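User: Fold both of these, please.

Assistant: Here is the first one.
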Amino acid sequence: MTQTQDEVAITAPKRHVHHQQVRYADLDPQQHVNNVRMLTYLEDARVSFLNYGGVAGGEGFGAMVVARQEADYLAPLLPRREPVRVELWVTEVRNASCTLAYEILDDEKVYLRARTVLVGFDVPTQSARRLNDTERALLAEYS
């Protein structure tokens, strides 16, 4: 059985969209955005998402730390005037962690695909903690 375009749109997760301006300081000697700066773009989108979730949900997210990150660089991102989109969605929610997926793209090309595993973190004890119901509800909106 094949899915229609409407069925695919219904099952696709909601995405948080962060617009990232490419800065001259982000470029490497090959005149494209440095691979480490691309990870910073993901961080900016993640912070935007976690803060947006907090505003939208009232309570928001507690402390979270990155446990794992992987990225596939698909095309060089060159200097440009218009920002790129960093789109983020949730692919998995577990007891103490969640996995975020990302794409850095524009209307014509995907430059990077990545995944990050975030773990709930208890700052006073410096240890992992379980995600609470508020966090789970906010994450569910994007999964």
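And the second sequence with its predicted structure:
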Amino acid sequence: MTEWETNPAVVALGGGHGLYATLSAVRRLTRRICAVVTVADDGGSSGRLRTELGMLPPGDLRMALAALAGDPDGVWARALQHRFGGSGALAGHSVGNLILAGLTEVLGNPVAALDEVAAMLDSTGRVLPMSPIALDIEADVSGLESDPRVSRCIRGQVAVATTPGKVRRVRLIPSDPPASPEATSAIEHADVVVLGPGSWFTSVIPHVLVPGLRDALVYTRAHKILVLNLAAQPGETAGFSAERHLHVLSQHAPEFTVDEVLVDSGSVPPGREREHVARAAEQLRARVTFSDVAETGTDRHHPGKLAAALDQLIRQPRPQPAGLRVEGRHMGADVRSGLGGKERVSWR
């Protein structure tokens, strides 16, 4: 069997608990994993460290490291996630956030700091920020004024994630942020790319708003899988159907396509709703698969079920590619093959 069949190179993109779920599943399939993580958090311990030290918000990065730890239930993985109590200066800070803050200052490079912690944890893969700079999220939100047709601009990941209004569109600040070169290289050399689940407007969509990442995702030859959330989230996606999740992703990045959309079979009943999801997936040129991936009685993905569903998608024949269209021209493999180069990619 080839290395692709026994140990495929997988890049998982997202943030927070959604990415943690994906990584917990993917680590059951391969040791060649790269997590690409959002860096727009402005709340809690991450927000404080970001403001006080001018560093990348470490919280989502820390969670990804914990998910990939050699022993995810071991003392170091648990210590990384431990949050201080009390009422002093350390209250609310996670041990892992402080370790990343200190290593970033000592080594002068956030990626080097992440690699150092990954080595300490004997990680099953690598964790990278999606951008080398901290980003902000800005959103157009309706329903906050007396006139429901009027939109208000709100700023900050926490504000967007918890708004009582309806999020219409999100943007990144700065509007044209750099992508981490290590992340784009990993995407270009991946066998499989997995996007989602997670907070749709603040953890999933931001990846296709970073130009360098979006280009890498458009042109990669990897098998691309989009994992839908099990339910709408209070605040940013309240009232969203599975179909609506796909529509807003397409609206934010019309050129972005995937091969597969994975939907929990229990969250979308058979019949017209599934037909609507399939039509929405056509915007992404994707095939839809419905599978039981939920942890019973919750709105969380079950790592074992999600791993089995991803493994099945990875191993079955991919949908026939329709090719890429840029400025009205059809772009085939000869164009795509020039993007990756031959540099070595580190998955550890």
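The two ends are 22 Å apart (CA to CA).
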